[in-house]
Amino acid sequence: MSHIPLVEILHQQYGLPKDIASESAATFLSTFRAQPDDETYALDEWPAHLWRNSLPKNYRHIAKKVSEEWLKLRFQYLALTPDVIHLLETLREDYLLGLITNGPSRAQWQKIDRLNLRDYFDCVLVSGDLPWEKPDQNIFLEACKLLNVEARTCIMVGDKLETDIKGGKEAELGGTVWIPLQQDEMESDLPDFTINKVTELPEVLPASPRLKRSAHVTNDC
């Protein structure tokens, strides 16, 4: 998620000067990405705490309201679009689908549940519940085990070379499909296929599908 919408909220709704709004938003996003959860806090209280530490002292009283605005904005940004929902529903007619995501358990399951992702996948693995995270091959092999399929009959679809694609390779999956987040990332020999967006996935799948797993990673913003 870009910090620009947050800057506009802080500036227009709460009166922060734009430079201070930009610095506060950048600080919050940086600290949240470094630590998306702290189990000593209630789940929704943790981002409010981070906002209190990111805002100037004379604006810290708005931290809870800003945190609520941010959560709303975050899930709007992460929500599956109708074309992606259609893709997942179509793929499930011929394939088993698994979701593997890195991150602390509570925060990731909040995201999974808010976005109704369990409606579209046959298994969901969160690294915070397990002794491994991507790119460790074991988390990919665990997904294959849960789906009762062999690794060589599976493909990994993801947007991060260093975790999704590298991990899929190390697990010796049947193929890897990379979706770069930025156009300047397009040069890499690591994935078997590179596509511009997830809705292009059917173009690189077999014409006569066998039972396979396609794991697509949501952006961990």
TrEMBL record:
Signal sequence, start to end: none
Q: Which residues cross the membrane?
A: none
Q: State its cofactor.
A: Mg(2+)
Task: Kindly list any coiled-coil regions of this protein.
Answer: none
Keywords assigned by UniProt? Hydrolase, Magnesium
Q: Name one Pfam family in it.
A: HAD_2
Record GO terms (molecular function): N-acylneuraminate-9-phosphatase activity
Annotated GO biological process: N-acetylneuraminate biosynthetic process
Q: What is this protein called?
A: N-acylneuraminate-9-phosphatase
Tell me which domain of life the UniProt entry assigns to the organism this sequence originates from: Eukaryota
Q: Which NCBIfam families match?
A: CTE7, HAD-SF-IA-v1, HAD-SF-IA-v3
